[in-house]
Design goal:
- The radius of gyration is 22 Å and the shape is globular.
- The protein is mostly helical and 459 residues long.
- Helix content is 84%, strand content 0%.
- α6 packs parallel to α8.
Amino acid sequence: MSEQRNNLQENKMGVMPEGKLLASMATPMMISMLVQACYNIVDSIFVSQLGENALNAVSLAFPMQQIMIAVCGGTSVGMNALLSRALGAKNFERANKIANTGIFLAICSSIVFAVVGLLVTKPFFLAQTDVEEIVNYGTQYTMICMVLSFGIVGQFCFEKLLQSTGRTFCTMITHLIGAITNIILDPILIFGLFGFPKLEVAGAAIATVAGQIVAAIGAIIFNLKFNKEIHFSTKLIRFDKEIVKDIYKIGLPSIVMQSIGSVMTFTLNKILISFTTTATAVFGAYFKLQSFVFMPIFGLNNGMVPIIAYNYGARKFGRVKKTIIITLITAVSIMLIGVAAFETIPDKLLLLFNASEEMLAIGVPALRIIGIHLIFAGFCIIAGSVCQAIGNPNYSLIVSVCRQLVVLLPCAWLLAQTGKLELVWFAFPIAEVVSLILSAIFLLKTLKKAKKKMQDIII
């Protein structure tokens, strides 16, 4: 225990200059997230060579994948923030319980995903389209990803444990090995190279799952070898009511928010497919392309959260505030690069997906219209995570509900009633403006409350 205490006293999150600390924490995560975006888009690029229906199948599968990511991400965010607070407060016993309880929750999640995948996948696709090839491709892809979900669940859990103690370089390595595995296996399994059977869309799913499993194994090894601030024990990998409650108090809003994203995607696909299946292919291509902008923001975000959670636990408000300012400036700068790409070269971006003339005709104006909302999105993402990390998770939930369910979907439906597909895309910038206003209000309230709480405790 004394060795653990000495390690925590020297933790860089409480002493290193904020800008340098954020760079050291976030840069590896941003690189790893860019790699993640790369192999996400490579998946779709290869699949699109099979035809537009194959790309559509993967696009329509996205809402179910979002549910998995929502549960894994939300649980991990709660565990990460809680663990970082415990470490900042030098409460080592609680930190160990949190980490091991998080592993227990990961095991339970993978079992639930597998059962849902077996029971729900085909009805899910039939609810969206009656095109037989899309249904068959989508069912194969989604069922493989969900039944073998222990890979993505383990990757989320053990990478967050590394992040919570500042070892983001290790998470970058796990992302790299997972991505490289996926990228190598994609063409081999999809097209049947080197004597392997041609598995088409199912091959893309197997490649994805294989990459996740390799990354999870790497994260486990790094934790056991380098994460000395957390002690793993099979006796502690169990249900702890108090800790589970605390994890989901922070993480549940994130789960709900991302699940709302799944509802939004599913419903918007239904609206778009009423015009043409090509519109859903464009929407799917957009989601892959925007990951090149959003993934670095999420990496930056992941680097920021343990820093502000740690310093919030250590009652260092000055460090919390400065970290947030630096992060916001960086996020907005990255988003401006994304806006420039969507506005200037949308046709070249769509051609990555073997776009037909019809897909280009629909997709070029769509990307330019949707791209407007990126100007505000970076601020909103960071503001929401700040609220989650220092005790006001419901704020980010309110923003997400308002943006996607109260504004975006109703706007998209109303604009669709005009019969003009190009107008539907304006729902994105309209919703983001609402999100920006709410995010700014809630961020200011959260920081004011956090500052007062720290001062009261110090007094």
